[in-house]
Design a protein that fits this description.
flat; mainly alpha; 0% strand
């Protein structure tokens, strides 16, 4: 799975509740998501997250032990992207 696909799914999860096509009685531009669709979005996100964690654990224990500088840089990049993702979802 490449970074583009991962970012696309993360964006879908973060913005799943925002849909300007619908309307509600309180005149807010939010559209209700069916419970089934929301469950599918959450399950896909959890599957992607689990796959990424497994990937980093397997490769972290085998390959990156020999290349410590690569491992440290990778951890910094991943943690920065994760922090940016959290900050963007808060604001």
């Amino acid at each position: 799975m490449n970074a583009y696909v991962l970012n696309k799914w993360l964006l879908k999860l973060q913005c799943a509740y925002l849909n300007t096509q619908g309307s509600s009685p309180s005149d807010t531009p939010l559209k209700r998501i069916d419970d089934g669709k929301f469950f599918i979005i959450i399950m896909r996100f959890l599957f992607i997250l689990r796959t990424l964690v497994q990937y980093f654990l397997v490769f972290g224990n085998s390959i990156f032990l020999h290349f410590r500088s690569i491992s440290i840089k990778l951890i910094k990049v991943v943690s920065l992207r994760f922090a940016m993702c959290i900050k963007s979802s808060i604001y």
